[in-house]
Amino acid sequence: MLEAKKQKKDIFDTIFLIMKGLYAPVHEVYTGLKLKTIPVEACMIFGVVSYVCILLGLHEWTFQLLKVGQIYPERLFWFHVYNNFWLFSGFIFWGIIQVALRRKLVNTLTEVFINAGLKSGLGKLPGFISDRALDSEARKLTLLKNQIPVKSFEAAKDVLEGALQVHIDAIEDRKEKGTVDIFYAHTELKRLIKATGLDSLKPNTYVVGHTRSKVITAHLGKVPHLMVVGQTDMGKSTFLRQAIVGLYLNNPRMTFTLVDLKEGLEFQAFENTKRIEVYDELDGTVTALSKVHEKLMHRMKLIKQAKCKDIQELALKSHSDLKDLGVDPKECQFGRHIIVVDEVAEMFLIKKGSAAERVQEARRVIDKIARQGRAAGFHLMLATQRPDVKSMDPRVKSNLAATMCYPMRDITSSVTAINSRRAFDLPTIKGRAIWQCGYDCHEIQTGFLDKSEAEEIMQPYVLSKKEIKKEDSSCEVEPSQNVAEVILDEG
Ligand SMILES: Nc1ncnc2c1ncn2[C@@H]1O[C@H](COP(=O)(O)OP(=O)(O)OP(=O)(O)O)[C@@H](O)[C@H]1O
Ligand SMILES: [Mg+2]
Question: What is the pLDDT of residue 2?
Answer without folding.
Answer: 63
